[in-house]
């Protein structure tokens, strides 16, 4: 890609560390989401969610626990939700993966559970005893609607397979701050990402897998009512469609799993530009590609992040796509600004304004521990700080200069050594 930057600034982020107990080490291949971290809107709390359901809120400065709660499911997502009135306290919302697929809100001051909603009542119960079949709240998004009311949006899904028949069941939700359900939007596709525009009027939903009646990768809903405004799709064959979505004003940036490109769309889905990110490329007799998994847009700049290499004819390959595990940024016209090597798999992004944080895990084809890091980028100028970890970074949260990340231990299958620990890392990123 043009504008490639390969220098790594090892300034370090001066992390403070709190151990999180025990968890089975990740292996060479990437494991599912097992941990979550979030920052309270008030700026004084960092909250962790663990695979055993433990949710802990800690003071940002001292990292002393304020409270601990037991979530009904694996705690795999965290968001902060303010109240609608002067006397309404902030709540911490936790997304679950488990038998009930629970969304629950906890008082930020005390940890007392304020309300609970079980998405399994809508998407159904698991038909097999496997993590991949469990109801899963894949995304949370909070914001203020056009009338100034705090709103929570969530997307839940469940997968099932009966012989050769594969199905998804999914629901998108809107809640008020008290947990009352405002509306739902149901499909037979697999949602993967949500984003709310700055006005609070439109909610974008990215669908990763479409193998039923719902056959479009991007849906834009009216946030107040859940009414459908418009849709867009990369128009590719197969069930892979969208990896992530991000609003920037009236534009939406979309990472496409269908054709491995990045898009910037205008109102109604008009395509302003499209960029080849990790499209099929022939190397040593194999056609290789990588999925653009994440996108973040802000103030006329867009950054895309690609993931692992795969081969068209097989999931196994020793080859590597030249643009795997890369962060690439573009301006509002689609002109390249810079791109840089993330080196390892990025589970998800954390961002605040013009700063972007990528928690980088293992590169299972190379199995190089040097890929384990938390990497920070400036949307305009490129790579900034790097904090290397012994284990893998699997989640991050960033706001008002505070960066929090989760480290998990990892043991490569052909190495035998366990690296790193299960821990919360907190530092400052100015």
From TrEMBL:
InterPro entries membership: PQQ_b-propeller_rpt, PQQ_rpt_dom, Quinoprotein_ADH-like_sf, WD40/YVTN_repeat-like_dom_sf
Organism superkingdom: Archaea
Annotated Pfam families: PQQ_2
Residues in Pyrrolo-quinoline quinone repeat domain copies: 52-231
UniProt xrefs under SMART domains: PQQ
Name of the protein in question: Transcriptional regulator
Native source species: Natrinema saccharevitans
């Amino acid at each position: 890609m043009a504008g490639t930057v390969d220098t790594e600034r090892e300034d370090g982020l001066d992390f403070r560390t709190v151990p999180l107990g025990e968890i089975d080490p990740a292996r060479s291949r990437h494991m599912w989401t097992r941990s979550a971290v979030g920052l309270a809107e008030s700026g004084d709390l960092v909250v962790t969610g663990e695979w055993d359901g433990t949710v802990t809120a800690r003071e940002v400065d001292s990292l002393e626990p304020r409270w601990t709660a037991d979530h009904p499911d694996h705690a795999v997502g965290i968001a902060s939700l303010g109240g609608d009135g002067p006397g309404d306290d902030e709540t911490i919302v936790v997304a679950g993966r488990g038998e009930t697929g629970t969304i629950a809100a906890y008082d930020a001051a005390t940890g007392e559970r304020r309300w609970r909603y079980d998405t399994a009542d809508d998407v159904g119960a698991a038909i097999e005893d496997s993590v991949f079949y469990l109801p899963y709240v894949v995304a949370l998004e909070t914001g203020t609607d056009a009338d100034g009311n705090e709103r929570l949006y969530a997307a839940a899904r469940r997968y099932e397979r009966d012989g050769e028949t594969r199905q998804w069941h999914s629901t998108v939700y809107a809640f008020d701050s008290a947990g009352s359900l405002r509306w739902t939007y149901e499909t037979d596709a697999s949602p993967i990402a949500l984003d709310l525009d700055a006005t609070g009027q439109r909610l974008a939903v990215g669908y990763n897998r479409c193998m039923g009646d719902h056959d479009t990768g991007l849906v834009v809903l009216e946030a107040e009512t859940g009414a459908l405004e418009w849709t867009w799709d990369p128009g590719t064959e197969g069930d892979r469609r969208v990896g992530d979505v991000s609003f920037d004003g009236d534009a939406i940036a979309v990472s496409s799993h269908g054709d491995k490109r990045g898009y910037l769309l205008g109102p109604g889905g008009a395509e302003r530009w499209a960029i080849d990110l990790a499209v099929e490329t022939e190397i040593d007799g194999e056609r290789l590609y990588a999925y653009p998994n994440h996108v973040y847009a802000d103030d006329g700049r867009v950054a895309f992040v690609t993931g692992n290499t795969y081969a068209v004819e097989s999931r196994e390959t020793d080859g590597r796509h030249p643009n795997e595990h890369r962060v690439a940024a573009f301006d509002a016209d689609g002109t390249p600004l810079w791109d840089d090597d993330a080196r390892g798999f990025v589970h998800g992004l954390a961002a605040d304004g013009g700063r972007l944080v990528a928690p980088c895990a293992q590169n299972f084809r190379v199995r190089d521990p040097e890929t384990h890091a938390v990497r920070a980028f400036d949307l305009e100028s490129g790579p900034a700080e790097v904090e290397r970890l012994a284990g893998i970074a699997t989640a991050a949260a960033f706001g008002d200069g505070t960066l929090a990340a989760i480290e998990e231990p990892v043991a490569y299958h052909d190495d035998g050594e366990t690296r790193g620990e299960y821990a919360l890392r907190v530092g400052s990123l100015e």
